[in-house]
Amino acid sequence: MGQTSLSSSSSSSVPQPTDLRLSVAGAVAASAYASAGHSRRCRHRHHSLASVATVGLFFLLLLLAIAASVVPAAAQSSSSSSSSSASSASSSASASVSANSTATTTVSTSSSSTSSSATATSSSCYDCSTQGCLNYGTCTGSGCSCPAGFGGTDCSTPLCGSANSANSDRPTRSGDTCTCDSGFSGPNCNICESDDVCTSSGSVQSPVCNKNVKVWKSGYMSCTVNSALLKGVYPLTSVITFYRNVTAGQTLGALWYNNTEQFMCDISDCSQQLVDGQYQWYCSSLACECIGKSAFCGGPGTLINLASAISEASGSLTFTCDSTNSTSCNANFAFLSTLFPSGLTLDSCDFGECALPSDNPDLQTVSTATVLTTGEKAGVVIAAAVFAVFIAGLVVAILEQNRRRKAPEPPERPGVTIGFSIQSYKIGNKSVLRDVTGAASVGKVFSIMGPSGEFSSTRDEGETTLLDLLAGKTKSGVTAGAVTVGGEVATSDQLRELVGYVDQEDLLLSTMTVRETLLFSAELRLPESTTAAQRASRVDAVLADLGLTHVAGSRIGGFGGKRGISGGERRRVSIGVELVTNPPVLLLDEPTSGLDSYNALSVMRTLTDLARKKGKTIVFTIHQPRSDVYALFDDLLVLSAGQPLFCGAGADAARFCRDSGRPCPDGYNIADHLLDIAAGALPELVMGEKDDDDVGGRTTRRRLWGWRATTGAPASVAATTANGGSTTTVIEAAEAEAVAAEVGDGEKEAAVEAAPVLVAGRAAHAQYRASFLTQLGVLLKRSARHLVRSPTLLIGHLSVTAVLAVFVGAVYFASSSTLGGIQNRFGAILFMLSLVGFASLSAVGSFAAERALFLRERSNGFYGASAFYCARLLADVVPLRLLPALLLGCVAYPMVGLAPGADHFGKFIGLLLVFSAETGLFCMLFAVAVADVGAATLCGAIVMLFNMLFSGWLVNQDSIFPWLGWIQYLSLFRYTYEAMVVNDLSDLQVSDSINGVSFNVPASVVLAKFGFDGNAYWRDFLVSVGFLVFLGAANFVLVHVLLKEHR
Q1: Dihedral sign from CA coordinates of 488, 492, 494, 495
Q2: What is the pLDDT of residues 1001-1021, one digit of tens each?
Q3: Gap between the Cα atoms of 281 and 330, Å rounded
Q4: Of 888, 1037, 898, 1026, nearest to 970 (Cα)?
Q5: Of 908, 806, 928, which Cα lies nearest the Cα of 855?
Q6: pTM of the predicted model as reported, rounded to 2 decimal places
Q7: Structural element, H or E, at residue 23
């Protein structure tokens, strides 16, 4: 903490105006010093901390406390040892405050005063080559060559007379003011007032006195500084003078206090123009120096020593006036922007230069509406490119949708015979299937049975694995073998085209009705050339076939305790979802699982009717069917330890058991007896060699395919390799007939009846029957229905947001511009961002509810990841993220009393909406990457908390250790919070009093204290938009890569 030493000639114990000036002066000096040292802060961060530390609120409070209490006490025990005039001794004290990197401040008082001429060095010992020239004079062989209006050995002495005379002929100033020649004015008599004082230079034209702000060649001007903050420190008159040379692009600017020059700035790279009708003189660089021991630079009358800040000043100058005839202007020095963000207001400006009328230049006119910075141009180009890509993609999508709608409707697909010859299927070193051969014929139901095993996620003995291979599902193991359709070897893509697959678990959206569920499948999986009437007719036919017409308008239910249709009806709806596409082959995994005996029999009768009446090929797995269900089986495959125990007609199983020496007891369910055998009750049956045993005049090999069949698939069927979790069967096309022969004559005979020509698998971009736009529209329609019919989450978001918005507005109601009000503004903004951020964690749960359904529907070819992701964004971000954020901002913003004006409000709402979308996508990232809802929510909450920690309010950004400082740049809160507080406080003046002492300083001082950049709004806004785009792209990639069904 800074140390303070004071002495004073005053004996009064009551705070004087000087005390307040001391306090405010501390902030002025520190802020100017911090701003001037901006370039050094980029090189030395630890020095930045010391500089900025002298700027802020704490330093202001410390100086005010000293001014109110310490100064009077110190004054009582001190005495003055020197004096000048009585008026000077009684009206002012001089102080010296040195702000350095350790924030140590020294204040000393003196009652002596002197004129600036007293600082001039004796000519007898002055050498400009070693000691230099003040006021940016030039050292020549004969001494200093001074700017017009300055003289003396070191150019520190103001000259009087007029600019018509050379410096050497002009009298020096005696006293506090100059006596100027008639027709001239200004602190050093350089400004002409009328045409008649301008002397001719031999030109045909008569010179005139240009009193306009526009410079013709080189002109002089002076303005009175009108700044409440500056007057709080230096109450006497402050004047700025400029010498502007348009030809050289140079400016010399001086600040005068009480008619005494304080410092001079050499400003270069200057030009003038009209910007939206407003005159502007802009210079890109400057350097300043103190003029001796002036009041601003530690000399007599000093209240604050600005010498260090002035000597290190840099940056630009923007001098503007409302018009070329205006006398009210503004000077904005970049190095003072923290303390004076709107610049210094200048009044009573007087301009004058003697020049020829022909010298009057035409000013370049610039419109800010059409002039963009390099960054803005880059932003426009990027935005235009993104928009162009969007439009191009939309056009392509529309053309593709129209093409598909005009394509001819494919012919009806009849049932087909599907055969299989699987030599082996292994997961690592474990063999799941071995030597499994068989065929499912048209118009029959083919059942696969076996005891529970340990080789798959469903704990099956290979039944579900075999079913997955028949469906062309992506498997994680390695397969050797082939699947044939009508005697031809089929690829995985071709199988997915022909097969409808019903999983063991019913995954249906609870808020949809039975009809809507089937229509959803029809709209996405039937060709787009199918009309709406045709799709509706197909749905009605399926409802009738499955016996679901009476519940067509009932909701599925079963979620959140809401009743819906029965379990058997749910299972039939799952079958209908696949059946609506009229697949030639229908595969079902455990269709009776979880059903009572009545519903199980009902489902099996439905499947039997589909096979026998509709000509479908039905294959399913089943565990422990009761006898009446077993009686419906046409063909049966029983697996034991991944090998076929029995494969033949279901009616032949009892004879097989009897002839094998293990007859089924009377009254005992043959299905249970077969499962007992498969579980190992008769291991000799598995190990025996009975391929050619005669069973009722027919060989077992003929009717009981796979009962320890030793022939196997042809040697030409090569083993496959797992590549990235997918399995590819390697088989030569010329050997297809041999593979087909392996599955038996039964398949060949059925294949003759209906042998469709297998078409090549569709390309990856065309693997879905519906186009992208159709997928997106259907998904959005379903999401909207779900949101309306299950509005708990939406109502919860809106109601909680409304209550908390009123709560925030009441707690921080009408925050003022006092120190307490500033604290409230900081707190209110952070609370609103925290509310939006943590409310976004609901995205984890809502996404998890649809995760499994998406995996199932994507695997079954309903829609692609792109359509799902876009629909998810629109259905989640808009109603659950943007709408509550808009409500929060509209209610809380006016109640808290944040910066008035439509522009400030619009910026705030825009930032809040971007931030809400950011945090929603941020939480969705965890929902996609982590399947467990609890773990995803925990990770999201912890990371969100760390984001909030580095917002800039809970910890000062400049005080973070460098090895931890990089974390703040990854915080979503940091950029939004900084932009919001800058938007609110940039134009605010902090007005307050401490111990009865009032002060008024710009809120930009407070922003600098907390490490915020007062000019960072648009930068932070663009960074936030960049975060939003990045999170959206990251989610898109993760959905595409991670959310795939693996079996």
Answers
A1: positive
A2: 778 778 877 888 888 888 889
A3: 10
A4: 1026
A5: 928
A6: 0.69
A7: helix 17-36
